[in-house]
From TrEMBL:
<feature type="region of interest" description="Disordered">
    <location>
        <begin position="26"/>
        <end position="46"/>
    </location>
</feature>
<dbReference type="GO" id="GO:0016787">
    <property type="term" value="F:hydrolase activity"/>
</dbReference>
<dbReference type="InterPro" id="IPR009003">
    <property type="entry name" value="Peptidase_S1_PA"/>
</dbReference>
<feature type="region of interest" description="Disordered">
    <location>
        <begin position="79"/>
        <end position="105"/>
    </location>
</feature>
<dbReference type="InterPro" id="IPR050966">
    <property type="entry name" value="Glutamyl_endopeptidase"/>
</dbReference>
<protein>
    <submittedName>
        <fullName>Trypsin-like serine peptidase</fullName>
        <ecNumber>3.4.21.-</ecNumber>
    </submittedName>
</protein>
<feature type="signal peptide">
    <location>
        <begin position="1"/>
        <end position="27"/>
    </location>
</feature>
<keyword id="KW-0732">Signal</keyword>
<dbReference type="InterPro" id="IPR043504">
    <property type="entry name" value="Peptidase_S1_PA_chymotrypsin"/>
</dbReference>
<dbReference type="InterPro" id="IPR018114">
    <property type="entry name" value="TRYPSIN_HIS"/>
</dbReference>
<keyword id="KW-0378">Hydrolase</keyword>
Amino acid sequence: MKTIRHLLTAAAGTALLITGAAAPASAAPTTDAAPGPVAQAAADTASEQRAVAEYWTPERMREAQPLDLVETDAADLTRVPSGSPSTVEPTAFPETGAPWTGDGDVNTTAGRVFFSFDGRDASCSGNAVTSANKSTVITAGHCVKYEGSWHTDWTFVPGYHDGQAPFGIWPATQTLTTPQWEASEDINYDVGAAVVAELDGRKLTDVTGGQGLSFNGSYDIDMYAFGYPAADPYDGETFIYCSGTSFKDFLFSDDHGLSCDMTGGSSGGPWFSSFDESTGTGLQASVNSFGYVFLPGTMFGPYFGDDAENLYETAQNS
């Protein structure tokens, strides 16, 4: 096992989204005032899905960049996590004889996310999870919507490496995020999801398998974080991970923290508790979200509480 790095730097009092710009922070809304998850239709016809898949050529995928790293003022974002612990068990992983690069089943469930934002090709990371529709991907909120705009040409490429899509290119039919991220881009709720179309008559997790999930869990636990960092010194072509004991953010959010130096492009990549290195399976409990510019070498991911669980339930039943 090796622990990898990312690059995040900046001044005190600011926060940075790892794949893109940190959104203007606002005080966390109370849970009783929060509406349900917010969804946006994407490529919902066969012709649109084909056009998205054809758009993302190997060259475009190699050249896609993480969103610009932009600073934002930090505010008091603390909230009290509530709700009962719950888990979703992993889906059985198919034995398809598809090429593997090692390190277990996470290499089929996790992948690179591509989309168009503000006229440019951009990238994040994501992960396929157990779901009723067998078509749900979990990522970061800013990987589906940022600065008031939903990303277009959104697609998921599980097992991506070196411009290759060994398990196919899966255009989204719908992208979703938490109501708090949709309303004010509150970094405590930087969670997104996508429902992807069938590919050649097969559903996503029938091809890749799906990781389990954990909601309303604990801090201070062993975590593994995965992603495709694309900002220097990385290039987005290699699947990277960090591991260690998580902690509760002691500054401006209620996020999980982890010693890690992944850069932009890794946002939306999964954090796993109960991760088994021998099988590459675990329970997804967060996603790569942001880092403080004055605290290099540390990455943060949102706490998966009731709002994240509601988002998951909405996505898997879409």
